[in-house]
Write a structure and sequence with these properties.
The chain has about 160 residues and is an alpha+beta fold. It has helices at about 5-15, 20-25, 40, 45-60, 130-135, 150-160; strands spanning about 25-30, 45, 65-75, 80-90, 90-95, 95, 105-115, 120-125. The longest helix is centred in the first third of the chain and has 14 residues, at about 5-15. This is SnoaL-like domain-containing protein.
Length: about 160
């Protein structure tokens, strides 16, 4: 199985089958997905925690999530998956009503593997801003990394 095939197998399990997802992990992995300060909730360390926190996604409890692995960057023991997600039929996203919209987004997941090829460490980042914009939330997204970015002009425009 190629690394991109592994990435798609993981993506399919995340969106469809929590038991298939659990089978991809070592017995005591470290999975971080929330990027919030409360690590009691957003760090998973065993199969029961995976089932509890990620099972609702694969069970479709708040819409159907379809993940597509678009790229694998890495080696045999570690890598970064870039993925797209389509969310259909969700009533909310991050607590914000969807008003029946089909949402699309992107994200990335870094994985490290043990000697048996099981996922030992994982860190996921959802690029929520694209989805927030689809829900009508106005966001300011400065492109400060661009060579000709003018911070003063950006701040003046933001001040209105």
């Amino acid at each position: 199985m190629s690394n991109l095939e592994h990435a798609q197998k993981w993506a399919d399990a995340l969106g469809n089958d929590v038991e298939a997802l659990v089978a991809l992990y070592a017995d005591y992995p470290t999975i971080q997905f929330g990027k919030i300060e409360d690590h009691e909730v957003d760090t998973l360390t065993d199969a029961d925690m995976i089932r509890e926190q990620l099972g609702p996604i694969s069970a479709g409890e708040n819409g159907k999530y379809t993940f597509t692995a678009t790229e694998w960057l890495g080696k045999e023991k570690f890598g970064l998956i870039h993925w797209d997600v389509t969310i259909e039929g969700a009533s909310t996203f991050r607590g914000i009503p969807t008003e029946g919209k089909t949402l699309t987004g992107t994200g990335s997941t870094y994985q490290e593997f043990d000697d048996q090829g099981k996922i030992l460490r994982e860190n996921t980042y959802w690029e929520d801003n694209r989805i927030f914009e689809q829900l009508g939330i106005a966001l300011m997204r400065p492109h400060y990394w661009e060579e000709d970015f003018d911070m003063e002009a950006f701040l003046a425009e933001a001040a209105g």
